[in-house]
């Protein structure tokens, strides 16, 4: 469904997601915000944040996914095994395997983490949740493995989302990056936004980008790259992948954010080598600071071993 809204003077200063949601009776504001973030809805032909304050004569245009893509009634509980590291009545901590999609999307209403959550506990089937992402506090890409914290109550969700937004959560990743002259450590502060031509990709944008900060240090060096400890201070979509590509050290196995000639699948590196390694945050009920660590997955170990062996023959 196509929308087109021209902002009048009396609408100036209102949030973009609110303007769009008010024009659509069957779509929630949270769903609108998600569509804006995914680039389905543009302002003056450019991507904006859901919280962008509209201005007089702004032209809002976009395409909502078809009704069958928006239908969440078909998102059913499924018996999908979860690697649970911790669980109480407020939160669930899992180690997500690579290849598991977090929440349903267009034409993909099964086999996701959300389906697994719906099948795991009745708390995720309560009507007050956003049916598409019950309990989802933050997200990992399909092929990124590692730690995710899930809220089991709405007040826990609100608390944890605020903690992430206020940057009180400490997040570290393991990454295998390709490059011969990678510095021992560094800080990358480059704004990130939706790619101007490829809607499903992100890019470093000096204009219309959102502040993003990534810190890294080398744990182990190989002839063709490094094992890195990466700390995220912000949580932009594809942040590590985009920042590392921009700095000339793309992740091994990443077929999107790397030079075109290297975008073919490598049988030795089955996915982008990125793992959510440690996560530290305050418990939403007790306030006690928790710390979790997810062990390196087997495919990561295999790739690491391959790189180590390659060094012996250089």
From TrEMBL:
InterPro entries: PsdUridine_synth_cat_dom_sf, PsdUridine_synth_RluA-like_CS, PsdUridine_synth_RluC/D, PsdUridine_synth_RsuA/RluA, RluA_PseudoU_synthase, S4_RNA-bd, S4_RNA-bd_sf. It holds the Pfam family S4. Residues 14-81 form the RNA-binding S4 domain. It is an enzyme of class 5 (isomerase). The keyword ATP-binding does not apply. Its EC number is 5.4.99.-. The active site is at residue 141. Responsible for synthesis of pseudouridine from uracil. This is Pseudouridine synthase.
């Amino acid at each position: 469904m196509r929308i087109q809204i021209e902002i009048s003077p009396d609408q100036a200063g209102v949030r973009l997601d609110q303007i769009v949601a008010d024009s659509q009776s069957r779509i929630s504001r949270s769903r609108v915000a998600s569509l804006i973030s995914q680039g389905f809805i543009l302002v003056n032909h450019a991507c904006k944040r859901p919280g962008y304050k509209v201005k007089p004569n702004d032209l809002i245009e976009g395409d909502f996914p078809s009704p069958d893509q928006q239908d969440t009634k078909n998102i059913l509980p499924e018996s999908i095994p979860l690697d649970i590291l911790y669980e109480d009545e407020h939160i669930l901590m899992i180690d997500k395997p690579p290849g598991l999609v977090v929440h349903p999307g267009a034409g993909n209403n099964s086999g996701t983490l959300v389906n697994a959550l719906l099948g795991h506990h009745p708390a995720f089937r309560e009507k007050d949740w956003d049916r598409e992402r019950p309990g989802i506090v933050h997200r990992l890409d399909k092929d990124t493995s590692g730690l995710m914290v899930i809220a089991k109550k709405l007040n826990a969700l609100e608390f944890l989302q605020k903690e992430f937004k206020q940057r009180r959560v400490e997040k570290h990743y393991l990454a295998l990056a390709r490059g011969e002259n990678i510095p021992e450590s560094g800080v990358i502060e480059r704004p990130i936004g939706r790619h101007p031509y490829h809607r499903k990709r992100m890019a470093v944008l000096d204009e219309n980008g959102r502040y993003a900060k990534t810190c890294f240090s080398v744990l182990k060096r190989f002839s063709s790259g490094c094992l890195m400890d990466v700390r995220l201070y912000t949580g932009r979509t594809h942040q590590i992948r985009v920042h590392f590509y921009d700095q000339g050290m793309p992740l091994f196995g990443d077929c999107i954010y790397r030079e075109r000639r290297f975008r073919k699948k490598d049988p030795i590196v089955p996915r982008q080598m990125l793992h959510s390694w440690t996560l530290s945050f305050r418990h939403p009920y007790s306030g006690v600071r928790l710390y979790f660590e997810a062990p390196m997955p087997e495919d990561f170990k295999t790739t690491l071993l391959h790189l180590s062996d390659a060094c012996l023959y250089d």
